[in-house]
Specification:
- The chain is of the alpha/beta class and 135 residues long.
- The protein is built from four helices and five strands; from the N terminus they run βαβααβββα.
- The chain has helices at 15-20, 42-51, 67-70, 110-134, and strands at 2-8, 27-37, 81-86, 97-102, 106-109.
- Strands 1, 2, 3, 4 and 5 form a five-stranded mixed beta sheet that branches.
- It is globular.
- The termini are far apart.
């Protein structure tokens, strides 16, 4: 499993807006591999509890607990990373995106992965219901 944290220039309100105006270094993706462990990681528990309140996938939530662990920003960037210019992995698949791939992995428990997958299934079903209702 991999975690991708996508950052975009503060001059834009949404990722789609940044993608439409991407002229270089507007979008950065920080990527971490995830290692499965036996015990729950408290920061994941906090985030999953907050995420359960989301109904509409276009909603935003303010996360003020554990985010530094889950999406660690380079502090400063050590020698343990790779970087390249690529594209977003989801539509609109905009190019000219700076990728930073961390050599360090993040830990998550097997139970927390199951909770995360159930959350994703709920969001996907919600999106499909919207699509059906719009036609």
């Amino acid at each position: 499993m991999e975690i991708q944290a996508t950052y975009y220039h503060a001059g834009f309100n949404f990722l789609e807006e940044a993608a439409a105006n991407n002229i270089g270094n507007t979008i950065v993706v920080l990527s971490h591999l995830v290692q499965l462990v036996d015990n729950d990681i408290p920061e994941w528990t906090d985030l999953l509890n907050i995420a359960q309140d989301l109904v509409d996938p276009s909603e935003s939530i303010l996360v003020d607990s554990g985010i530094e662990y889950l999406i660690p920003l380079p502090k400063p960037i050590s020698q343990n990373y790779w970087t390249y210019t690529g594209s977003l992995t989801r539509p609109p698949c905009t190019g000219n995106v700076r990728w930073i791939i961390s050599e360090d992995s993040l830990a998550i428990s097997k139970q927390q992965v199951q909770s995360f997958l159930s959350f994703l299934v709920r969001i996907i079903v919600f999106i499909e219901l919207i699509a059906i209702n719009e036609h």
